[in-house]
Write a structure and sequence with these properties.
Layout lengths: L3 E4 L8 H8 L2 E5 L3 E11 L6 H10 L1 H8 L4 E12 L3 H16 L3 H6 L2 H17 L5 E5 L5 H8 L3 E6 L2 H13 L6 E5 L5 H7 L5 E7 L2 H4 L3 H11 E12 L4 H9 L3 H4 L23 H8 L3 E9 L15 H14 L11 E8 L1
Parallel strand pairs: 5-6, 5-8, 6-7, 8-9
Antiparallel strand pairs: 1-4, 2-3, 3-4, 9-11, 10-11
Helix pairs in contact: 2-3, 6-7
Length: 358
C-alpha cells in the first residue's frame, strides 16, 4: 500500500513482536520470493469507519476480520526501505529468533526473575543439572540466554561452553560472568545449533562430558535431527544430554481452558508450529511429546529419566491463576512428589529428559 506494509495484530492480547518493534523499529517481512526491510511505526485506527479498516475488511472478509481482529485498534505500519530475494524457511526461522532475543536481552532477567513460574522452571532444571554434572566437567549449553543456568553450573565447578544465536544475550551473560568472577568457567559462543560441532572443532574441542538445552532452543530449531547427530559425535560415551522441552500436553492448560470454554486453546499445542498468539512465545514454536523427541534422538541417545515441570502449577503466562500461599506451596510439593512418575511426568508445561549417549 503506497510503499508500505500494514499489519493488524490479532486480538489475542499483548503481542510481544509489537512490543519489540516499539523498542526497535527496524523491521523485516518475508514472502516466498521476497524479503523487505523497513521502519515500523505503531499506529491506531480512527474508528470503525477508518478507510484502512474498510480496505482490510474488503480484502479479507468481514467474518475473518471480526473473528481475528475485532477490538484491535492498533496496527503496524512498515515503510519499505529496501528489498531482496527471500531466504529459505530455516534461515528465516534463525533470523527471526536472533532478532527476537536481541530485542529482549537487556530485560530478559526481569522476565525470568519477576515471574514466579519462570523462576520455578529454572529452579527445577538447575537442581537436575547440578545432580547430573559435577566439578571438572566440560559441558555445552545450547540456547544459554543470559545465563541463569550457566552461572549456577559455573559456581558448581562446571566449565560451560554457553552458546546462543543472540549476540546481545551473550553480551549480557559475559557481563554477568565477569561481575561474579566466573569468566574462567564460562566460555561464550555465538552459533546456530547446526554450526556448533564445526565451531567447537575449530577451537580444538572434539569431545565434551555432556550438554543441555532447556526451555526454548529445542522447540524452535528446524534441524533437530542434525543437532542430535552432532551431539552424539562430540559427547563422550555414556555422557549426559539434558533437554527441557515445551510439552504437547499440559494438564493445567487443558483443564483450565476447557473450564473457561476456550476449545481452540485446549488444542493449541497439537498442531506445529504453534503460532504466535496461541502460545506465550514471541515466535512460532513446536510442542513435542517425549516420544517424538526420543525418535529424533534414536541411535544417538536413550532416555534415562523424565520429569514433568508445572503439572498442577500454572505455566508462566497463566501465573495470575496461581493460588494464595498455603495452597500454592501444597501444589509445589505435589508437583515435586509426582514429577518423576508416569503419567504425570508427561503432563507438565515442560518436561525435563535426562538422556545418555549410546
Amino acid at each position: 500500500m503506497n510503499g508500505k506494509i500494514i499489519v493488524f495484530p490479532q486480538n489475542t492480547g499483548r503481542q510481544d513482536w509489537v512490543a519489540n518493534l516499539e523498542k526497535n523499529p527496524k523491521a523485516e517481512a518475508f514472502s516466498t520470493n521476497l524479503a523487505v526491510q523497513g521502519t515500523a511505526k505503531i499506529r491506531e485506527i480512527s474508528g470503525l469507519k477508518d478507510p484502512l479498516l474498510s480496505a482490510f475488511t474488503r480484502k479479507y472478509g468481514e467474518r475473518d476480520v471480526r473473528r481475528l481482529y475485532w477490538g484491535q485498534h492498533r496496527y503496524v505500519e512498515i515503510e519499505i526501505t529496501s528489498s531482496s530475494a527471500s531466504l529459505d524457511y530455516s534461515q528465516l526461522v534463525y533470523e527471526e529468533l536472533e532478532a527476537a532475543f536481541d530485542g529482549v536481552a537487556e530485560s530478559y532477567d526481569h522476565h525470568i526473575m519477576d515471574n514466579e513460574m519462570n523462576l520455578w522452571l529454572r529452579n527445577r532444571s538447575v537442581s537436575l543439572l547440578k545432580r547430573c554434572f559435577g566439578p571438572g566437567d566440560v559441558v555445552l549449553e545450547i540456547g544459554c540466554g543470559t545465563g541463569t543456568e550457566t552461572l549456577a553450573l559455573a559456581r558448581h565447578g562446571v566449565t560451560v561452553v554457553a552458546s546462543d544465536i543472540s549476540s546481545k544475550m551473550l553480551q549480557v551473560l559475559s557481563r554477568k560472568a565477569s561481575e561474579s568472577n566466573q569468566e574462567e568457567r564460562v566460555k561464550t559462543l555465538k552459533a546456530r545449533p547446526y554450526e556448533l560441532k564445526e565451531m567447537l572443532k575449530r577451537q580444538g574441542v572434539t569431545e565434551i562430558d555432556g550438554a543441555y538445552s532447556t526451555y526454548g532452543a529445542i522447540n524452535t530449531d528446524p534441524f533437530l535431527p542434525k543437532l542430535f547427530e552432532d551431539l552424539g559425535s562430540i559427547i563422550k560415551p555414556k555422557g549426559i544430554l539434558i533437554l527441557g522441552v515445551w510439552n504437547k500436553y499440559c494438564l493445567f492448560e487443558i483443564l483450565g481452558y476447557a473450564l473457561r470454554l476456550r476449545p481452540s486453546m485446549v488444542v493449541a499445542r497439537q498442531r506445529n508450529p504453534v503460532p504466535v498468539g496461541k502460545s506465550r512465545f514471541c515466535i512460532a514454536s513446536n510442542a513435542y511429546t517425549l516420544g517424538t523427541v526420543a525418535k529424533l534422538m534414536d541411535g544417538y541417545f536413550k532416555v534415562k529419566e523424565v520429569r514433568g515441570v508445572e503439572i498442577f502449577l500454572p505455566p508462566s503466562n497463566l501465573v495470575r491463576y496461581l493460588p494464595p500461599r498455603p495452597l500454592k506451596e501444597a501444589l509445589k510439593r505435589l508437583d515435586m512428589s509426582l514429577e518423576a512418575h508416569y503419567p504425570w511426568n508427561r503432563l507438565g508445561d515442560h518436561f525435563l529428559a535426562v538422556c545418555e549417549r549410546v
